[in-house]
Amino acid sequence: MTNNHEQQSAPETEMPDNDHWLACYIRNLLHNYKSNNGLDFATAEALLTQEKETFERELAMARRFYRLYPHLVDDATRNVESAARRVSA
User: Fold this and answer.
1) Are 23 and 14 in contact (CB under 8 A)?
2) What is the pLDDT along the chain (89 residues), one digit of tens a residue?
3) Is the dihedral of CA 83, 21, 18, 69 positive or negative?
4) Which of 33, 45, 69, 83 is the most buried (most CB within 10 A)?
5) Cα 67 to Cα 13, 53, 60, 70, distances in angstroms
6) CA 59 to chain centroid
């Protein structure tokens, strides 16, 4: 006899890029679930808080970089935009 969950197939979804915060959060949730034989809301919330703090630190660093080196970011943006226009043309 099969479990009802096994009979229902989950919709196919793509995981975000490996360096995306959501993919990191999901990996951490799964790791914690497997290593502790379960997961509670407090742990999920603590992991999400860690991801938020990391995101905010990286955003602050990116803003500082842009303030110090705006010409580098502007040049890179122009290169990406021109490449995107060539591909879509």
Assistant:
1) no
2) 444 544 455 556 677 778 888 899 999 999 999 998 899 999 999 999 999 999 999 999 999 998 998 888 777 666 766 766 776 65
3) positive
4) 33
5) 38, 21, 11, 6
6) 13
Distances from the Cα of 17 to the Cα of 3, 44, 52, 71, 74, angstroms? 32, 21, 17, 28, 24
Domain spans, the chain: 16-88
Token digits of residue 2: 């099969």
**What are the backbone dihedrals phi and psi of residue 31, each rounded to the nearest 5 degrees, phi first?**
-60, -45
Residue 19 · residue 54 · CB < 8 Å = no
